[in-house]
Amino acid sequence: MNTRPHIALQGLRKLYPGNARPTFDEIWFDIMPGEFVCLIGHSGCGKTTLLNILAGLEQASGGTVIVEGRELTGPGLDRAVIFQSHALLPWMSVRENIAFAIRSRWPGWSRAEVEAHGQRYIDLVHLSGAERKKPAQLSGGMKQRVGIARALAIQPRILLMDEPFSALDALTRGALQDEVVAISATTRQTTFMITHDVDEAMLLADRIVLMTSGPDARVAEIVENGLPRGRTRQELHRLPGYAALRNHLLDFLVERPAGRPADPRHPPLRRIGAAEHPATANPR
Amino acid sequence: MPRPGQRARAIALSLLLLALFLGAWQAAVSGGGGTAAQMDPDYAALMGTAATQGASAMPGPAQVATRLAELLADPFYDRGANDKGIGIQLGWSLLRVMLGYALAVLVAVPLGFLIGTSALLRQALDPFIQILKPISPLAWMPLALYTIKDSGRSAIFVIFICSVWPLLLNTAFGVASVRREWLNVARTLEVSRWRMAWRVILPAAAPTILTGMRISIGIAWLVIVAAEMLVGGTGIGYFVWNQWNNLSITDVIIAILLIGLVGMALDQLLAWAGRRVGYSE
What we know:
The complex is a heterodimer of chains A (284) and B (281). By secondary structure, chain A is an alpha/beta fold. Chain A is built from seven helices and eleven strands.
């Protein structure tokens, strides 16, 4: 508990005009520097809205987001978003899409600098050879790789991912999850990811935030991933505590709890996956 | 997908239809029996061959082809107000269309951009656009002549006013329907308004804008003929009317053919430009 949170969500609320009840309300949780947090919840609980508020693309109806001690006011280059629909600009090639982001981040860079920097991230996501292709010529997995490269290329302090792999087939999804594991092991970026894939959350997340069903959704509880670090997709299901954690998350999704925690500011924190370690608020 | 050989067969069919049309045309204009016998010779001379020998004043395809070759052999001669080469006449029409059209693009694309990005402006301007759009461009002609006091410029104004609406509406629609996620990407990158307009909105809306430009050039080319018939002086529209007054049906037919060919060329040019800026998602 020696560092302050990188991102602090303080009582976030979203009420769309015309709705009687807010989509979510009283959302409180922290994301620590370098932490990988996954959010799991049913559709309709406002997961994407929550992420868009963190990205600065939408306004909260109440509450605030504090990033590095400052209140969030809008979108910014300190946060990169990986969109579910990849959101590549279709008239630009792979290289141009990434260069567009790099030039936004470093407007003074020369052409050669932009090119070289972009190439590093194209190589990082294993897209070498596809630089000149337009998004329409790429498979879904390759498009999402470009989205990841574009987000990483601006070297953001925070990475926000909105179900980035949900539109992909299982094999491609697995391959990309492996890449995210490898990349986040080296960059140690603070990452917030929305997912509905329990295994994905168990593989990637340090902590998993569970949200109740909407409307009026809350944070039901926060589960600390007790599975040992250095997880791989192949080994995940053999890890001690895998079944306990998986069952806990699935039970939550199946039971669809709609109740409210007694104290929304301090949702129950549980460490599941390796009972021998005591729970701590900050896993790193 | 067309089967192999279908293209060749389509061309063959096109040629067959052309041959049939030319044959029917020739047959229709070939003269019947003579009626000159009972006519006074002076009166017959006055009436010409149409009345005296039953020959149609409508020329046959061969006559048209001969005259076309004649006109195209020397398209740019200028022997006074009523006798200019067909190339000069087409050139004047194209010049007027280009000027009016360029003016319309300069006004409509930026304005359409604003309308497309501002819902307030869109709603405020909508009644004006809806009323002005269905007005025949030629209805503006007297007003244009009165205020501009120059027939040539009035024709350009008429081209402007008929090109501006499809351009305006298509630009506004294209800009308004730029995918939200593309704008969001640019917003998360803190892209400036200008860069957003140039690098995101304009390329995203370009295919829709080009569709508007293609519709507009078609309308402009339709309208220029009528406008030049009214204002006179030069241009292919004036040529058509002048040759009608000269009872030179051959020249009228040739003008019709050339108007069609130029119109097709303009349309294809913008279709090509549209393909250049197109993208697939």
